[in-house]
Every structure is written in structure tokens, then in C-alpha cells.
Amino acid sequence: MVSRRNVMKAGATAGAAALVTATAAAAARGSTPSATPAHGTHTGHGKTAHVAAVTAPFAVRMPIPPVQQPIASVANTDFYVVSTRKAQAEILPGTRTEVLTYDGLFPGPTFRVKTGRLAVIAHSNHLDMPTAVHVHGGHTPSSSDGFPTDVLDPGKSRIYSYPNKQRAATLWYHDHAHHMEAEHVFRGLAGFFLIDDPAQAELRLPTGSYDIPIMLRDARFADDASLVFEHDDFQFRNTILVNGKPQPYFPVAARKYRLRFVNASNLRTFTLRLGNDAEVAQIASDGGLLAGPTPIRSWSLTPGERVEIVVDFSAFPVGSQVFLDDAVAGPVLRFDVNRAAADTSRVPDRLSTIPALPAATKERAFTLNFNPSTGQFLINGQQFDAERVDTEIKRNTTEVWTVTNGDTLFGIPHNFHPHLVQFRVLARNGQPPAPGEAGVKDTISVGPGETVRLQATFGPYLGRYVYHCHMIDHSASGMMAQMKIVP
Questions:
Q1: Cα dist. 176→24, 35, 146, 151 in Å?
Q2: Domain 203-340: which topology?
Q3: Digits of tens for pLDDT over the chain (487 positions)?
Q4: How is the chain split among helix, strand and coil, in percent rounded to 5?
Q5: No. of helices (H) and no. of strands (E), the chain
Q6: 146 neighbors 382 (Cβ within 8 angstroms)
Q7: How many CA atoms lie within 13 Å of 357's alpha carbon, on the beta-carbon side?
């Protein structure tokens, strides 16, 4: 199981591993390591291993994580209790795997809350290691944000409060205890946190049983079905799980569905499309609805990113099988169109008003890079130190951040996620953002040699937060920094 010492040891050897892997891959091709990974491949440090099936495909149904119910509700507040504990889960059919869970579920229960309504969650830690809970994409007070060293010790409980004063969106929650977050998330500490806005009912998007959250991730299993975690292991996590099951199927009616995707992998990027190359409508990104639907045939998700699409399965005859394909893994999910159904939902031409961009008062620059000599992953040449404030920001001010991936020699990808805020993408490599990135975001891909410019307003809360690469094996090895919001 995880320990700080083991993670630091892994970080110290990651440099050699990255160099050896990239060089060996290049030698096999008879070339030097490529500066840019092939489009759609798993963006690890060099050559990608394709997915190997460990069980018969499409033998199990994709489950939908249950919605956590409040134990009490008063005025404008809902109260919940959750325990973090080990459990045995049937991931591979006919076997049991020990996992880390919220309330014994893999993935964890879904929190479905309303915008502007306070959610108070009492977490108790029944594990033998510290944890820290972070709602990814949440505008959250510092005391409840899951700062990496603000941990909940074994046997203890604490209250996390989420005001949810933000746009409706598909968020997710996961562990964030520093040096341990990578293994904790890999072993199961993740779940959906969905914010709904009753005012969006007039849009008539698919709802209820036609609104489906889908958590994608990869995993590595031993012969005895136990999970195998090795730090920075981008080659052998070769089993794709969809809501905790390998290559499942899911029955659908011949009508429109809203599909909410989150990439909960530590390192893997997914590039997805329907197997028949059908056009779908992207309606939302990390921070909620786009201004209007964007027709797409494929969509990519780096770790932590979310995309929402609407698929109209009435385009397929009843009895059809529609595959969700990944560019590297191949088919990861099968939709079985098994019945007709009435459908009054729609995808309107206008979905939302994207918040205006206030005038920025400061610009900052950040470079993400890996030091192969030390095995450290760095931001602006420094490894994370919880005792050091890297960036001090006045509350409610607006800044433009330029984020560059300096890891070009070996083609190491990164992405970028600041806590507390969501941002707008101003440019990628000097060009306007693609339509799918033109909405509200909180996590963004930064490929080798790429530069993105982001604009965010930092408020309304004071205190300390972090920003980091959300390829969380990287952040666990130091690619994270601290910002402090001051009066």
C-alpha cells in the first residue's frame, strides 16, 4: 500500500524509467524519441502499450453509481455522511478485488446537488492512511477544498462544506492527500459530484434515466485480480474500466441521451468516438453548458477533464449495437439499442450565456517540466512545498496565466488544473480555442511544447489553494504549486 517514502522513492527513479522507455521505443523505430505523441495515443512518456483484454468483452452491464441521499435537509442546506473504507468489489467477473471506497462503492456514490444550495458532508476515515477530499471544479472555501496536507487522519472525522454557488456542471470528487493521491485514486477514491440548476429545465435536455454519468479510467490487475499500482506506470494499466467495469454494455432506448464523461485515469488520455463515426452534439465542458451545441465526431479527455454530449440513438434501428471507441484502447463500451421510446427532449440552439471576461490586472507565466536527473516533476523549476507560497493573488482580481509544457525532448504530456476557480481559454499556441474549449474550463491539456493562455477571476474565498498537473502521478511527484488568496 501507499507510503510517502515509497512515492518519493518512485519519483527518484522515474527519470531513469522515462528515459529508458522513450529511448527503447525510439530504438525500435530506428529514430530519436518523438517530440509529440501520435494523436489519440495514451500520452505517457514515450511508447504506448495497447489495451489487452482480461475478460470477455461486453459480458457485464455498465452500472450507474447510486445517488447519495442526505440524512437531513433544512432550509437551504442538505447534510450527508460518508465513510472512506476498504471493500471487496467484483470488477473482473467472478473475482473479488480489494479497493478503497467511499461508502463501499466503486466508483463512489454520486452527489447530486442544486446550484446555490449548501451541501455539508461529514467524512469519516476508516482507512489506515490519511485522506483529503477535493471536489474537482468546485468553488469551495479553503478549509473544505482538500489542500494536499490538510489531511483527515485514520479514525478521524471532519466536515466539508460546499456552497455550490456556481454554474450547473459535471464535477467529480477524489482524494488529494499529497504523495498518496495517485495511488488512492487508482485504488478507487473517486466519484461524481453533479450540480443541477432547476432553471435549465426549460432547455428540455435529456433528464432522469436518460442522463448518464460515465467515469472512464484504466487499471492494472495481477493474476489474482488485485490492483497493481506502480508510480508513473503508463504502459501496463491496460484494462479500461467504465463506471468500474471492464468493457461493459449498456441498454438504451431509441431516443436522445445526455452522456456525462469524466476521465478519472491517473495518466491516460482518451480520444473517443462512436464506432460508426456518428456525429454527436457536445453541450458542455468542465464548467457547464457551452453557449450552444457543437457538432463533433470525436472528443478527447485528459485526466480530470469532463465533456457532455447528447447522442440520438433514434438514428439506429432497434437491435443495433453502437460502440464507443477509444483511439488506442478500441471499443470500451457497447450501447445496445433495445427498444423504442417517446422523446420530448431536445438540444436547443442556445444553451447558456458564457460569463463575460473582466479586465485582467496581472499576467503570470508557468512552465511545466520533468527533471530526468532527479526524477522530479516541476512548475517553474520548483517541486511542491506546502510551506512555500508560490503565488499570492488579491481576492476577486482577474489574471491571465500563460502555461507552457517544456517537456519536448521526450514528448511528455501534461495538463493543468487550478483549484478554486474555473477559467476561460484565450488561446492555444497563439490560436483561438476550439469550440469545445471555448466555454468554462478548470482542466486543460498542455501537450509537449504547447502553450495555453487562460483567464480567471480568483474569489470569492480567501486562503491557500493549489494548481497542478492533473496527470496525478506527476503532481504526486511534485508538479504542483501553492497560491494564496489574500484581501
A1: 33, 31, 6, 9
A2: Immunoglobulin-like (2.60.40)
A3: 444 334 333 444 343 333 322 322 332 222 322 222 222 333 344 334 445 546 799 999 999 999 999 999 999 999 999 999 999 999 999 999 999 999 999 999 999 999 999 999 999 999 999 999 999 999 999 999 999 999 999 999 999 999 999 999 999 999 999 999 999 999 999 999 999 999 999 999 999 999 999 999 999 999 999 999 999 998 899 999 999 999 999 999 999 999 999 999 999 999 999 988 999 999 999 999 999 999 999 999 999 999 999 999 999 999 999 999 999 999 999 999 999 999 999 999 999 999 999 999 999 999 999 999 999 999 999 999 999 999 999 999 999 999 999 999 889 999 999 999 999 999 999 999 999 999 999 999 999 999 999 999 999 999 999 999 999 999 999 999 999 999 9
A4: 10, 45, 45
A5: 3, 32
A6: no
A7: 15
Question: Distance between CA 234 and CA 41 in Å, rounded?
Answer: 11
Amino acid, single-letter form, for residue 130 = P
Residues 6+ apart with CB under 8 A from 392: 483, 484, 486
Distance CA 168, CA 386 (A): 31
DSSP code string of 409-432:
TTT--EEEEESS--EEEEEETTBP
Outline which parts of the chain fall under CATH 2.60.40.420. 72-196, 203-340, 362-486
Domain covering 72-196 in this structure, CATH number: 2.60.40.420
Structurally, what CATH architecture does the domain formed by 362-486 represent?
Sandwich (2.60)
